[in-house]
Structure formats: C-alpha cells, structure tokens
Specification:
single chain; 466 residues; Arc Repressor Mutant, subunit A; Aspartate Aminotransferase, domain 1; three-stranded antiparallel beta sheet; 16 helices; 43% helix; disordered N terminus; DNA binding
Length: 466
C-alpha cells in the first residue's frame, strides 16, 4: 500500500508557492504566485496543479485559504477545472476586442487588494448598521451628517481638521463643476482656465451659455501676470484650476505659483474652482490653493480618480454659507443629491480604512505603470511618475488628430489634444491614460504599439484594399 502511495505521489503536480509573513493575505499571495508563474513561463497552459487539499497540506494552511486563492485565480482567468481530472493552468484568452483603451482616465486595479471582497464587506456593513429607510429616501442637505464627516476625514491630509458643515457631498465631480458654474456665474460671464483643461468644464460652460477663455501657462501652470491681465480685461466670475497632476498635462503647480494665483484672485475678487482629484495620488504635493485663500477658493475632491468611478461621490469644500446654499440650489436643479447608498458605502470605506488601503494600492500600481511608460516611450515620456496619465508632445510630422486616427487603426484608443483645448488654443499632443487597461501586460503591448507608431511617419499609412 505504501509503495502504491509513493508511486502516486511521484506523479503529483509539484508546483508550490512561497508564502511570506507580512506580505498580505495568504490567499492573495497564492493567486499572485500563480499569476507570476504564468507570466514568467514557469507555469504553462495545460499544466496540472495540485488539488486544493494537497496544496493546503504542503503549505500548512487551512483548506479555505487555498479555495479562496483558486477562486481568485479563476477570476483572473488563470485556472480552469476539468472535473475529476483536476485543476489546470488555463490557456490564454483570445481577445475578441482588439482595442487597447488608453483614452479613459480611471484608476488602475491594484495588486493585493481584493476589490470584490471589499465591496461585499462594505455593503454588508452599511446594510447592517444603517437605517435602510434612510438609504432609500431624499437627502437634500448635501449629504448626511456622517457623509459630510467622512468628507472632512478624506480632506484632512490637505487641510487638517475641517468643519464638516462646510462640506457638500455631490454625485461626482462633473455634477459639482456644473453646479458651481450655475451657482456662481450668469449667462455670458467669462470663466478663465489654462489652454489645456478638463473637457467637462467646457461642456458645462457651453451648456449654460458661459464664455470660456484661456490664460497662458508655462511648465508650472497658469501664469500669474497673464491671469491678472485677463481679470482686468474680461472681469471673469470664475477661474478654473486643476493644480495637481493637471488633466491633461500632468503638471503639478509649485507652492509659490499657487500662492501668487490665490493673491491675484483676492485682489481681483474672482472665485477659484480648485478641482483637485489627484492630490492624494501625488508624491509630496504642495498645499492646495485653498489654503492660501480659504474664502476665495472652492475646493473639489472626487473619489472617482483615487478609488473607483462607480462610487460617484465627490466632496466640495465651500466656506461661505451663502455660496454653499446657492451651490446646493443649483445642484438640486439637475442632480438633486448623491445616491445615499453609494455615499454610505464611501463613508463606510473611509471610516474603516478600506478607502485608504485601496487608494494606496492604486497609487502603487499607477507608479509601476508610469515606470513602464517611461521605459517604453523613452525620450518621449514627460510624465510626473504619479497619477493616471501622461501628456505626450508629438513629433512635428504628426498632428494629434492624425495620430489618434492612425492609432485607432492599430487597435489603440488615445485622446487628442483638441479634446482639452480651451478656446482656440493650438496644441499638438495626446493624453495617454495608464489605468483603463486592467492587465499590465496588455498595457505594455499597447504602449509598445504606440511607440512603434510614433517612430513612423503618417505617409507610411495607406488605405487598405480588400
């Protein structure tokens, strides 16, 4: 009998990961080891893996840990079950959708964070602790007391302790920007912004009949002297700034420039909308502009860029109570409120530390992807090493629309400069978003394909004849 068992053991799969203390949950370590083995070729498609009981015994862990690890590996399409024959390394999935999307600025999925489990646990806690009736009714005051307090906690790294009553909870940054435009300007009023700016601002300004004008910028952002001149000339009601890892240029405005712009806004009595979605993703960012002119600046921070777009929760810091009420009235005219259930989930995640863990994972993954982009794009890379995107100036033989079209024929989606142009600003660049492709290997393939395309001239692309 023992001889037969020895013969059977000789034919058992011998794959076994190494588990390390203080390196995260063991089930994720096992799943990550499987993914690494597939990536480096030490595990090949069709290779048989140990059964869950066998692997649990070898590693000295409970069966549930290995079961969760194999479930996670199946979710990543690394494994396939073949009934009584066992579990095998899955063959690569054929990509029917060949488009590699480098156009959408979304947070990358972080390694070591079980998002599905975080979502289930968070919702479970919300439903267990909250009054379900309150989750399904109207909240017209800009969020519940708990939600506004969560906003104060979220903004504490930027401002320290805040009065939660000064914070409004909104259904995303775009709704907040539109409500700010509607509340603080009149039809025909001028709004100033940098030559390349967030497209959602232009959409809101156009929809509400406001005039958007560009103020010249340099490598540090909007030029103070040009802002003051524009304020004297056009008498604007708002200045829109995105000072940290700016979308799309990825510039982070230094502290001295922020202070100068705040001072000019005070002298010219113009409000600044400081849209700051990437502050928490940046390495040692300067203090927000709002710290230099608290009454002059309306500060906006969204969870969509640090955590996940599906939350649709943003926090707006408005210190003046009259402006806050005007803002709430404008918001209710088209968005009414943030959905209480998702706001409660955001509050739960902020309270229990899940939001911070997820954000730290996003930050780490984003930096890995920036290093990948720097290596592949070589001399063309001009990113900051943080955040979700790269602004790529194009060689003279390409224009941005032409390049975006050529990229699409090669199965790559990028965003051309004209999508961000304020007024008649002339730009020749593209924005490359690093988070929208979930798999890092596919991102690498997309960046390499784009690098090859940039090295060629437009005339080398002829029409196909079929």
């Amino acid at each position: 009998m023992s001889q037969l068992k020895s013969m059977q053991d000789d034919h058992l799969p011998n794959w076994q990961p190494r588990l390390a203390p203080n390196k995260g949950p063991r089930f994720l370590q096992i799943a990550d080891a499987l993914q690494a083995g597939v990536a480096d070729g030490s595990l090949t498609p069709g290779e048989r893996l140990p059964t869950q009981r066998q692997l649990a015994a070898r590693l000295g862990v409970d069966l549930t840990t290995v079961t969760r690890a194999y479930d996670e590996a199946r979710r990543r399409h690394l494994l396939e079950g073949r009934g009584a024959r066992g579990t095998y390394v899955a063959a690569p999935k054929a990509e029917l959708n060949a488009i590699l999307d480098l156009s959408m600025n979304t947070p990358p999925p972080p390694d070591g964070v079980d998002f599905d489990d975080m979502l289930k646990q968070g919702l479970s806690q919300v439903l267990m602790r909250a009054d379900n009736g309150l989750l399904m009714t109207y909240h017209l005051g800009g969020g519940s007391d708990a939600d506004r307090q969560a906003g104060a906690t979220w903004l504490a790294p930027m401002f320290g302790q805040l009065d939660a009553r000064q914070i409004v909870v909104c259904p995303g940054a775009q709704a907040a920007i539109a409500a700010l435009v509607l509340a603080l300007t009149e039809p025909g009023d001028v709004i100033l912004a940098e030559p390349a700016s967030y497209p959602g601002l232009r959409a809101a300004a156009t929809q509400f009949g406001r005039r958007l004008m560009a103020v010249a910028a340099d490598q540090h952002g909007m030029l103070p002297a040009m802002l003051e001149q524009a304020c004297r000339q056009h008498k604007p009601r708002l200045v829109y700034l995105n000072p940290t890892l700016q979308n799309p240029t990825a510039i982070t405005m230094p502290a001295h420039r922020r202070k100068e712009l705040a001072s000019i806004a005070q002298r010219c009595d113009v409000r600044i909308v400081e849209d700051d979605p990437y502050w928490l993703l940046a390495a040692a960012p300067p203090p927000p502009i709002a710290t230099f002119a608290p009454q002059q600046v309306l500060y906006l921070s969204t969870l969509s860029k640090c955590l996940t777009p599906g939350l649709r929760v943003a926090f707006v810091l408005i210190r003046d109570p009259v402006e806050r009420e005007r803002f709430l009235a404008a918001l209710r005219s088209f968005a009414l409120m943030a959905a209480p259930l998702t706001a409660a989930l955001a509050t739960q995640w902020i309270a229990d530390g899940s939001a911070d863990r997820l954000m730290q994972g996003v930050r780490k993954e984003a930096r890995l992807r920036h290093r990948l982009a720097r290596d592949i794009l070589a001399g063309r890379y001009s990113g900051a090493g943080d955040g979700l995107h790269v602004w790529l100036d194009l060689p003279a033989y390409w224009n941005s629309s032409q390049l975006a079209h050529a990229a699409s024929t090669c199965g790559i989606a990028v965003t051309p400069a004209h999508a961000f142009a304020t007024g008649s600003a002339s730009l020749n660049a593209i924005r490359i978003s690093l988070g929208s492709i979930k798999d890092r290997g596919r991102l690498q393939a997309g960046l390499q394909r784009l690098s090859d395309l940039l090295a060629r001239r437009p005339e080398s692309f002829g029409a196909a004849v079929v």
